[in-house]
Design brief:
single chain, alpha/beta, Rossmann fold, Hypothetical Protein, Haloacid Dehalogenase-like Hydrolase, Chain: A, domain 2, 2 domains, 7-stranded mixed β-sheet, 4-stranded antiparallel β-sheet, 9 helices, about 35% helix, about 20% strand, Phosphomannomutase, isomerase, magnesium, cytoplasm
Amino acid sequence: MVNKNILCLFDVDGTLTKPRQAIEPCVEEFLLKTIRPYCKLGLVGGSDFKKIAEQMNGDDVIYKFDYVFPENGLLQYKYGKLVGKQNIQQFIGEAKLQKFINFVLRYLSEITLPVKRGTFVEFRAGMLNISPIGRSCSQEERDDFERYDKIHGIRKTMIEAIKKEFPDIGLTYSIGGQISFDVFPNGWDKTFCLQHLENENFDEIHFFGDKTDMGGNDYEIFNDIRTIGHKVTSPEDTKEQLKKLFGL
């Protein structure tokens, strides 16, 4: 890798942090001090900027990392500056969007879970985030729902129902994290961020993510021909794979 122009691009949840938790100081220091001399650093997450900043210890994440792509790259930060953004509302149109949201809320009103909390549909610039349990649940409730969902397939079943209701709406559904799934226009998955890197002249783009199986929100970018994919299981595993990659 001598003299190569390399970008290491990271998912956040489950890759650099534990789910919805802040990055641990040892992981951050490893990236910024040990790995940075070997490559450029980038983040791409399905969450909005506020949530990514919370997990990465502050808004100055845009200065710590060379590229930050919230909402799968619908917002684009480069070297500390916002250089572009897109909007799902303009893309789909208000009439279709409301019909879609109405169906989702009606569906959620008719299912019973061990607990339900608040914020079931979160409107983001580039996507909708839908949570059957509600995003205002506690961490313990998150963990319980994740286990419940693995047994009962709540999110998977809901996605199938939405696809049946809206077969031609042109949306992609991606399960990520513990309690929710993302909905966005076809092609607006994490590969969307790669178009903003096409003129950066990287010899290699290494992507690190944990939800790389089909249906996971890292699947498309992990398998994209423009990236070299690395499936990880935890922040600690990410560190070990980086050490191996750069011979440390």
